Amino acid sequence: MLYDEHKKLNARFTEFGGWEMPVFYSSIIDEHNAVRNKAGIFDTSHMGEILISGPGAVNFLEKLVPARVAALAPGQARYSMLLNENGGIIDDIIIYRREKDILLIVNASNAGKDFEWLKKNITQSVSLENLSAGLCLLALQGPEAEKLLQPFVKQDLSKIKYFNFITPDFVPFKPEFAFLARTGYTGEDGFELLFSKECAVQVWQALLKAGAKPCGLGCRDTLRLEACMPLHGHEIDEATTPLEAGLSWAVSFDKDFIGKPALVKEKNEGLKKYLAAFSMSGGIPRGNCDIIYRGEKTGSVVSGTFSPTLKKGIGMGFSAKRLEPGEKIEILIHGQKKPAEVVKKPFYKRIKN
């Protein structure tokens, strides 16, 4: 819905999840630094939105995710996952508990699969609606995001806590559907704006005029990797469990959910692989590079890049051995072993005011 707007800005495009998406407008590093230091805006309308309603909505979702849905008050959000019977991650999602229903934001490439999984497991007194086609989703991220956005929203944005949301009164926009959350995928403060698509161009242009820098998929990946946020198909997939992906904090074992027996077994018997983060002063790691420990291959890189913030190569990968921060490893890049060091996650953590 904003494709023509991106073309006007001379965006470089790529195919992503069945969409033509901007990779960058100026440069990945330039856009990355804008988010870290000021404010950048992403068109994330490719993401999927699913509405769960009915008196049985909470109990229905409790059975499908390892998070405590009932513990959420209206206006609160929580990161979680849809799991298969083996404990593998079908998708990672954000759950938004509204007054009368629950909104899920899911990954673009998995939206159809997620919706079918929900339908397959649906119970009585629950209704599902795929809202994706009619909505625009923008992510305004960076330390100046609140200041930049405030003139366009009647409510006081400073009162919205992290992973909380409101139904905003936009000014001067009047979308039929409006939603504003203090969430994001960059490691910075910021907001995600979800609204009816007829206002997409108007809102996009207004935020650019106010000073937000347009940002593409390229820096979205470097930003999320510095913050050690998982990307489906890389750190998480249907063959990887939350425990293996370092997401045990998102699992409530004191309730029943699809995949729980497999996770309990895994917890008791031990993991088959462990996710580690590493940095390197020479070389830039990429996906599928071998991880070498004491002369032997122990795993593979799943995400790697040059960190514009740290100004060195960083990556995450799975290892058959638990690798502890400070341990020395090697990454096989173009047939050459390059030294690296295991570090504590995340690589970057913003200083909160």
Topology summary:
Elements: H1 3-8, E1 12-16, E2 19-24, H2 28-37, E3 40-43, E4 48-53, H3 57-64, E5 76-83, E6 89-97, E7 101-106, H4 111-120, E8 127-130, E9 135-141, H5 145-149, E10 165-166, E11 178-181, E12 190-196, H6 200-209, E13 213-215, H7 217-226, H8 260-269, E14 274-280, E15 290-293, E16 296-307, E17 312-319, E18 328-333, E19 336-343
Parallel strand pairs: 3-13
Antiparallel strand pairs: 1-2, 3-9, 4-7, 4-8, 5-6, 6-7, 9-12, 10-11, 11-12, 14-17, 14-19, 15-16, 15-18, 16-17, 18-19
Q: What does it look like?
A:
- The structure is a single chain.
- The chain is of the alpha+beta class and 353 residues long.
- Among the domains are: 3-46 and 133-226, Probable tRNA modification gtpase trme, domain 1 (Gyrase A, domain 2, 2-Layer Sandwich), CATH 3.30.1360.120; 273-353, Beta Barrel (Elongation Factor Tu (Ef-tu), domain 3), CATH 2.40.30.
- 20% of the residues lie in helices and 33% in strands.
- It contains 8 helices and 19 strands.
- The protein has helices at 3-8, 28-37, 57-64, 111-120, 145-149, 200-209, 217-226, 260-269; strands at 12-16, 19-24, 40-43, 48-53, 76-83, 89-97, 101-106, 127-130, 135-141, 165-166, 178-181, 190-196, 213-215, 274-280, 290-293, 296-307, 312-319, 328-333, 336-343.
- The strands form 4 sheets. It has a 6-stranded mixed β-sheet. Strands 14-17-16-15-18-19 form a 6-stranded antiparallel beta barrel.
- α2 packs across α7.
